[in-house]
TrEMBL record:
<dbReference type="InterPro" id="IPR023210">
    <property type="entry name" value="NADP_OxRdtase_dom"/>
</dbReference>
<comment type="similarity">
    <text>Belongs to the aldo/keto reductase family.</text>
</comment>
<dbReference type="GO" id="GO:0016491">
    <property type="term" value="F:oxidoreductase activity"/>
</dbReference>
<protein>
    <submittedName>
        <fullName>Aldo/keto reductase</fullName>
    </submittedName>
</protein>
<dbReference type="InterPro" id="IPR018170">
    <property type="entry name" value="Aldo/ket_reductase_CS"/>
</dbReference>
<feature type="domain" description="NADP-dependent oxidoreductase">
    <location>
        <begin position="39"/>
        <end position="306"/>
    </location>
</feature>
<dbReference type="Pfam" id="PF00248">
    <property type="entry name" value="Aldo_ket_red"/>
</dbReference>
<dbReference type="InterPro" id="IPR036812">
    <property type="entry name" value="NAD(P)_OxRdtase_dom_sf"/>
</dbReference>
<feature type="site" description="Lowers pKa of active site Tyr">
    <location>
        <position position="101"/>
    </location>
</feature>
<dbReference type="InterPro" id="IPR020471">
    <property type="entry name" value="AKR"/>
</dbReference>
<keyword id="KW-0560">Oxidoreductase</keyword>
<feature type="binding site">
    <location>
        <position position="132"/>
    </location>
    <ligand>
        <name>substrate</name>
    </ligand>
</feature>
<feature type="active site" description="Proton donor">
    <location>
        <position position="72"/>
    </location>
</feature>
Length: 336
């Protein structure tokens, strides 16, 4: 094209076309070639009896990405919701991005774990299947999901490593490409990822980690960006009770843009090219959480200040394991 013509077009093209506002369904690239919608609905702690209505409401409100897990013990209802919206012609299966996760007591039984989730979700395939934690737990312990020793500590399976589990997931996708479109991990630190990548034949498509301005995890985010592993942020509002809504810096940035605190907390991840999961069973909040904006460098600098004097992690189950995160140095090292 004539360079002066292209200069003219650039000068006269509205800014929003050159720099489109992010939306809840802005597609972010995975290393498989597929895309993941920027915002997903979280379903952890969404109670049976509530979760179906919340998933239906979210999909009717435009959500296309739903985050599920076998251990949330509500996949059956999530599946009913998905069936309902598909049956009513609101969406087609291929319009949705559904994630599920292999629970810790299923590390030696990836195929069984996947099939259980598919059956509950009433789906032929999931778009993404994650190893929920790099922590194998005893499959034959005193509880199918949370086996414990007599002293109350979690019954960890020391006979395998998370790398064996990953090899199981690699075999799973190779054997069942029609049932699982991508595999990934969750709760992986740089240390565990380095060990995994040294022996992996498939690079995880995603790493789902706790992430918000009080826990930026910049080292994991940078490492994953460099290796082509997409980051999905969980607990972006500070998890149960959304404590980050009260943070003064977040409120200040929200005021500047005339938006709610949630918009700032969710948009933070888009600015880092990550997708983000927000859980709610409240229709008005599910609606409110859809709004994303472009934060500027001044906003990001302010939010960076929130972790300057230390980080806060809201979700760290009592596995008794050192998962390699610098702020959680205690427990046994299972990195392999
Ligand atoms: N891979 C992993 O190990 C983990 C994955 N996750 C995934 O990430 C998702 C999100 O993280 P989660 O820990 O649930 O926490 P979130 O940070 O999403 O916070 C959820 C809490 O915020 C409240 N909330 C939601 N929207 C608003 C709003 N607009 N205004 C005020 N309060 C609001 C919810 O209340 P209410 O529902 O009552 O409206 C709930 O109490 C999970 O649901 C799960 O899918 C989470 C943790 C670990
Ligand atoms: O995904 C959400 C969390 O990881 C959750 O699955 C765990 O915290 C679980 O409740 C546990 O106690 O180990």
């Amino acid at each position: 094209m004539n360079p002066s013509l292209s200069k003219f077009m650039l000068a006269h093209t509205p800014k929003h076309i050159l720099d489109p506002q992010p939306t809840m369904n802005t597609p972010l690239k995975l290393n498989t070639g597929a895309t993941i919608p920027a915002l997903g609905l979280g379903t952890w702690q969404s109670a049976p009896g509530e979760v179906k209505a919340s998933v239906i409401h979210a999909i009717e409100a435009g959500y296309r990405h739903i985050d599920c897990a076998y251990c949330y013990q509500n996949e059956d209802e999530v599946g009913e919701a998905i069936q309902d919206v598909i049956k009513r012609g609101i969406v087609k299966r291929e319009d949705l991005f559904i994630t599920s996760k292999l629970w810790c007591t299923f590390h030696t039984r990836a195929e069984e774990g996947l099939q259980k989730s598919l059956d509950l979700l009433k789906l032929d395939y999931v778009d993404l299947y994650l190893m929920h934690w790099p922590v194998p737990m005893n499959p034959k312990g005193n509880h199918p999901l949370f086996p414990k020793h007599e002293d109350g500590s979690r019954d960890i399976d020391l006979s395998i490593t998370h790398i064996d589990t990953w090899k199981g997931l690699e075999a799973l996708i190779k054997k069942n490409p029609d049932k699982v479109k991508a595999i990934g991990v969750a709760n992986y630190s740089v240390k565990y990822l380095e060990k995994l990548l040294a022996q992996a034949t498939i690079v995880p498509a995603a790493n789902q980690i706790e992430n918000h301005p009080l826990l930026p995890q910049q080292e994991v985010v940078d490492f994953c960006n460099e290796k082509g592993i997409h980051i999905t942020a969980y607990s972006p509002l500070g998890s149960t009770g959304s404590p980050l809504f009260k943070d003064e810096t977040v409120l200040e940035v929200a005021k500047k843009h005339s938006v709610g605190a949630g918009t700032v907390l969710l948009s933070y991840h888009l600015a880092r090219n990550s997708s983000v999961l927000a859980k709610s069973v409240t229709p008005a909040r599910i609606d409110e959480n859809r709004k994303l904006i472009t934060l500027d460098s001044e906003d990001l600098q302010k939010l960076k200040g929130l972790s300057a004097n230390g980080v806060t992690r809201f979700v760290y189950p009592p596995f008794g394991v050192n998962a390699g995160f610098p702020d959680k140095p205690d427990g046994i090292d299972l990195s392999g």
